[in-house]
Amino acid sequence: MADLYVPIDHARGGIAGQIAVALRDAVRHGRLEPGRRLPASRDLAADLGVSRGVVVEAYEQLVAEGFLVSRVGSGTHVAPAAARTPAPSPATTAPTGADRTFYGHRATSPDLGHFPRERWLASLRHAVTAIPSDAFDYGDPGGVPELREELAGYLRRVRAADVDPANLVIVGGVAQGLSLVLHVLTQRAGGLPLAVEDPASHRQVPLLRRAGARLLPVPVDDEGVDVAALRDRPARAALVTPAHQYPTGVVLSPGRRAALVEWAQDTGATVLEDDYDAEFRFDRDPVGCLQGLAPGHVVLSGSVSKALAPGLRLGWVAAPAELAEAVRRARGELDLGSPVVEQYALAHFLRTGGYDKHLRQMRREYRRRRDALVGALAEHLPQVRVRGIEAGLHAYLDLPAGWDEGRTAEAARDLGLVAEPVGPMRFTPGGPAVVVGFARLPAHRAEESVIGLKVRMSGQNID
């Protein structure tokens, strides 16, 4: 069993990430050779003075990356194929600071350990063996027709969308879809005043600005984006998350939905609907997408990043016919389109019911994990107000006055929770709050993590 030196800077936070980086470097540089057994998570946690959950998270990350293998009864070992590589030059070291926000665990990330590997592999095999040879050539940058047909049917059935396959463009996730749409709209208008929700995902801000948008923040309240305030902005487009606002989790009220559509119709503006996690509804009937109300004014963007895995980089844009064609052309000019094998595989996965089956399984599991987290918070931290839990994979926690959201998020991360402070997501100041993801938190670990958080925050007037 390996004796490990794992340096940890508690002041910097992200302890699980620090452990993963140290172990990954040890494997890459030969200090941990293939086949070497690592200490049990409980032992390493005791040695490092951290919770076992933090070490488990680091081990799970490296297992997912292929650096480690773990089998019941035999422990955790360095993967046989893990090769020694030269030390990276300073120019290739991992990004730090703000750059880190674009990769790794997020509060909205699914549990990748539940990715349906066997069923997805079956769909990949079917695609490789069944599609004609010509399908491997440069194809339609808008996506393969089979996938657009399946997606159109799925979106009509599940999201109440008004979608024609010809108006769907397959993209590499919602981020690329938004970039392409904004590129087209900006080129047409010579700049684009874009209304955005406040608060909103801080990861999207650089993307939106790089595409040429001038951001106009609009406040969000308990009914969603404030459309009356939106009318006071000179916006030509609005980016919204109506089914489950990020980060607050608010569902856009019926009155606001009607008002938003009316604003678009009155002004000729375009509504960009980010439908990022609408498939996961727990306590209420699903809310149909906004695009189904006004297909001539709303662009619907979605992906499989929350339902399956972000790493698949498979998404779609449904837009009015003229705009969809412009986005399709822009996609062709950018990179000629998405990989075709994965598109055919997703079409098969949808057609054979694998996608629906996986969603049903994960809804049950995520609801169980959500209930465990919410119950533990209610029992041990009743001062914390929990919001936005009717859907999605994260909870919005309003913290008591005087709490420091950065310290709270850091303490939560040290305990194995995926947590982010809300401050960086705001355009205008607000009360302390954090976003916590529950998709990767097993139900049996929820109470332990919340009790640990209570202890860590005991200096902030917690009994």
User: In the CATH scheme, what's the topology name of the largest domain?
Assistant: Aspartate Aminotransferase, domain 2
For the termini, the CA-CA separation is 41 Å
- Portion of residues in beta strands equals 5-15%
Number of domains: 3
Low-confidence stretches: 86-103
Summed over residues and divided by their number, the pLDDT gives a mean of 90
Report the count of strand segments: 14
Structural category is alpha/beta
Number of helices: 14
Secondary-structure arrangement, i.e. CATH architecture of the largest domain? 3-Layer(aba) Sandwich
Structure summarized in a few sentences:
This protein is an alpha/beta fold and 463 residues long. The protein is built from 14 helices and 14 strands.
Feature tags:
463 residues, alpha/beta, Arc Repressor Mutant, subunit A, Aspartate Aminotransferase, domain 2, Aspartate Aminotransferase, domain 1, eight-stranded mixed β-sheet, four-stranded antiparallel β-sheet, 14 helices, 14 strands, globular, PyrdxlP-dep_Trfase
If you had to describe this structure to a student in words, what would you say it looks like?
It comes from Nonomuraea muscovyensis. In the C-terminal section; belongs to the class-I pyridoxal-phosphate-dependent aminotransferase family. Residues 13-81 form the HTH gntR-type domain. This is GntR family transcriptional regulator/MocR family aminotransferase. Helix 1 (15-28) crosses helix 3 (52-65), helix 6 runs parallel beside helix 7 and helix 12 (354-380) runs parallel beside helix 14 (443-456). The chain has an eight-stranded mixed β-sheet, with helices on both faces. It folds into three domains: 15-94, Arc Repressor Mutant, subunit A; 117-356, Type I PLP-dependent aspartate aminotransferase-like (Major domain) (Aspartate Aminotransferase, domain 2), CATH 3.40.640; 359-460, Aspartate Aminotransferase, domain 1. The chain is built from 14 helices and 14 strands. The protein has 463 residues and is of the alpha/beta class. The model is unreliable at 86-103 (pLDDT under 50). Helix content is 40%, strand content 14%.
